[in-house]
Design brief:
Elements: E1 9-12, E2 21-24, H1 30-43, H2 52-58, H3 62-75, H4 78-81, H5 90-99, H6 103-115, E3 118-120, H7 121-128, H8 132-144, E4 148-150, E5 161-164, H9 167-175, H10 179-195, H11 204-221, H12 229-246, H13 250-262, H14 271-286, H15 290-302, H16 306-322, H17 326-340, H18 347-362, H19 366-383, H20 386-402, H21 408-422, H22 427-440, H23 444-461, H24 464-473, H25 475-480, H26 484-491
Antiparallel strand pairs: 1-2, 3-5, 4-5
Helix pairs in contact: 1-3, 3-5, 5-9, 6-7, 6-8, 6-9, 7-10, 10-11, 11-12, 12-13, 13-14, 14-15, 14-16, 15-16, 16-17, 16-18, 17-18, 18-19, 18-20, 19-20, 20-21, 20-22, 21-22, 22-23, 23-24
Length: about 500
């Protein structure tokens, strides 16, 4: 019986910090498989006759076909392979191809697998040693054998970048790295990244978090955790979370902060601030985080950090509002304002005043909202926080329109433009306020366009919180357009 390959789950493997996309592909039919095999055999200089046994072994799997023909090429043709039992799966074929490599190429490929789907010559030198010229020559041979490919543009300035041609090759190569060696190699990879200037490498924070977390996991599994490694991993995870949070990737930030918190024991001075970061990301991304924020407030007060505790209280008030508890919101906000009353200027104090500004805006206290908004604008300018300044400008514009001043539309447009420049999701709420303001002024086409822009931005950033809010608010659009059945269905 000839073994056949089962259809594989082919994955697009993104950079660190994003979600993978998996697509299940149905197997090719015999005619298409024969055509593919003939083309692959001819491409590699092998006889293009597709034997029935080869067709059955491939089983309609294009990746199996590609790797199997490469193995035939590496071994000198079908006859040479058939001297031994042929591999029966894609993983087995890739492993057989790796086993046939010379020792130096095999070692470089395994070190490249430690780096991830993408790696750099300088990092390979850190892991395995050897001059850059020798490593580049080895990588060129691996590229000719179609294991890796050189990138036209490197994400690390001044470094030659290579990537694996397929994530499966990387997985198999990584599986051949001895577990006892992985902790040390990941730690050395992290050390190389840390020595790079922050502006020289894209995704540096996420890569550092990956390598330190992996190094710690393998060190603990081996019962040989070096002193200070957990603290390095925690700091890297916190930095990666901060970067994701700043870009509006709240779900990704939540994962990083939650992992960092696991490495932060009770009583650690950093625990309260990590809880605040985690609760803030969950509040913004999922309308959750009450327990994290309540614990953060308590821990920060005990640590003598009332301003940070005030930000936790402000976010707890925001959650209360989102969940329909307006009275609790007012009480939380009053407590937050009391905690920052005599504090010097800081980002946390500005965030608390932003919360007060939004509360006044929702309560239709126009004059007070505009007054606090002007304070926040001044704070944002002093602290260099453009997103905070844009929020204040949006609030001022909304309050102006609600008070009968159509000039507030320009403020709303300016706030949205700032968030577009920043590339963050903060503009969603001001698109919604622009839609409300346009409707209040009788401009329904502009209202509908603002709703559509808000929905597109929420989809782009994957914001469940805003997608749900926008769907409900667009009931008005359906009502005004006479699409009443749709409106009723959504409300129901």
């Amino acid at each position: 019986m000839v073994a056949t390959a089962r259809p594989e789950l082919l994955e697009r493997r993104p950079g660190w910090g994003s979600a993978g996309v998996s697509v299940r592909l149905e197997p090719l039919g015999d005619a298409n498989t024969t055509q593919l095999l003939a083309a692959l055999l001819a491409h590699h200089g092998l006889p293009a006759t597709v034997e029935p046994g080869l067709l059955a072994r491939v089983g309609g799997n294009p990746l199996f076909a590609e790797e199997y023909v490469r193995m035939l090429r590496d071994h000198g043709g079908l006859a040479a392979v058939h001297r031994a039992a042929p591999p029966t799966g894609v993983h087995a074929i890739v492993a057989a191809r790796l086993d046939a490599l010379p020792p130096d190429e095999k070692a470089v490929l395994r070190d490249a697998a430690v780096l991830g789907q993408v790696g750099w010559v300088g990092a390979l030198g850190e892991l395995g040693g050897g001059p850059a010229r020798r490593l580049q020559a080895c990588l060129a041979r691996l590229e000719a054998k179609e294991f890796v490919q050189r990138a036209e543009r490197s994400r690390v300035a001044g470094e030659v970048e290579y990537s694996f041609r397929h994530g499966l090759v990387r997985d198999v190569a990584y599986g051949q790295v001895l577990r006892a060696e992985r902790a040390d190699k990941h730690r050395r990879a992290a050390g190389w990244l840390e020595r790079l200037p922050p502006d020289r490498a894209e995704d540096r924070a996420e890569l550092l978090a990956y390598h330190y977390r992996a190094a710690l996991g393998f060190a603990r599994a081996a019962g040989a955790e070096p002193p200070g490694l957990a603290e390095l991993a925690r700091a890297a995870l916190r930095e990666a979370g901060d970067r994701a949070d700043g870009l509006g990737g709240y779900e990704t930030a939540t994962r990083f902060f939650a992992d960092a918190l696991e490495l932060c024991p009770d009583g650690d001075p950093d625990r309260g601030r990590l809880l605040l970061r985690l609760g803030r990301a969950r509040c913004r991304g999922e309308m959750r985080g009450h327990d994290d924020l309540a614990a953060a407030s308590e821990a920060l007060l005990l640590a003598g950090e009332p301003v940070a505790a005030a930000e936790a209280e402000m976010l707890l008030g925001e959650l209360a509002f989102l969940q329909g508890r307006g009275g609790e919101r007012a009480a939380r906000l009053d407590r937050a304002l009391a905690l920052v009353a005599d504090a010097p200027l800081s980002a946390s104090k500005a965030a608390v005043l932003r919360g007060a500004m939004m509360h006044l805006l929702v309560a239709s206290r126009h004059a007070e909202a505009r007054a606090v908004g002007r304070q926040v604008v001044a704070m944002a300018e002093a602290l260099g926080l453009r997103d905070l300044g844009a929020d204040a400008l949006g609030a001022i514009g909304t309050a102006r329109v609600e008070a009968g001043d159509a000039g507030g539309m320009a403020d709303l447009e300016a706030a949205i433009a700032t968030f577009q420049e920043l590339g963050t999701p903060g503009g969603i709420v001001w698109h919604l306020n622009l839609a409300w303001a346009a409707a209040a002024l009788g401009d329904l086409p502009r209202c509908f366009a603002a709703f559509a822009a808000a929905a597109a931005m929420a989809e782009r950033f994957g914001s469940l919180r805003h997608r749900r809010s926008i769907e409900l608010q667009r009931v008005a659009e359906r009502y005004w357009a006479g699409r009443w059945d749709e409106a009723v269905a959504i409300v129901d």
